[in-house]
Amino acid sequence: MMTRRSALFALAGSALTFTARADALKTLSGTVTYRERMALPAGAVLLVRLEDVSLADAPAKVLAESWQQIQGMPPLSYVLHVPVLESSRRYSLHAEIRAGDQLLFTTEEAHSPSEPNIMVTRITASTNEPPYGSWVVQSLKGQAVPDLSQAPNLTIGRDGHVFGSGGCNRLMGQAVITGNALEFKPFAMTRMACIGSGMEIENAFVNALGEVRSWSVDNKGNLILQSESGAGVIVLRSDGTVEAPK
């Protein structure tokens, strides 16, 4: 049976454990801004999170996250309480601005914790035209894709048929598109060996396609493929083969 004294010791131990965990967290602060001179809708919120993106072939791990209702014009300040970061791992800051379920702005490039001031890109209003056409990958989970002899690419046909390349192997499959919801069925692929970093990039591309749940187009005409959380996991530009949505 626990006595009053032992209960106090147990509570003290819990408090010490909590304090130690709190002390292990560091404060990371910065700002989020956008280029457009526009007022945001009432009730718009800012989401900022720090992700561990060390594993290219696995979903990013969220380490810290903050939500806040936006008051005033940019730059918008934020504060994250983050764990101790390891120099051997890669981290990226992601930011987005939403009004209800509508994504208004999001990050397209990786921002390391040492670059906490984030520029977000405006997402254009949804169109009735799905993202049919041919697209070339610009970035994967915020990391720019290096110049390759053949960059990862994707063509989405009006019948939902999808084909393209991971940069080394050909892929084909099917896309299910309903409004701005988008999901790819498992792809069939060739199995050629890739040279250099090609295999790592290809694996990251195919795994990111498996995370896609929605799409949008930014004000540059880039296609943003988003995960269930709304984060942009793949950014692609149109190669002009088929007219992209405006």
Automatic annotation (TrEMBL):
InterPro entries: DUF306_Meta_HslJ, HslJ-like_sf, Lipoprotein_YbaY-like, Pilotin. Residues 1-22 form the signal peptide. The keyword Signal applies. The keyword rRNA-binding does not apply. Residues 133-236 form the DUF306 domain. Coiled coil: none annotated. Keywords: Signal. This is META domain-containing protein. It comes from Gluconobacter thailandicus.
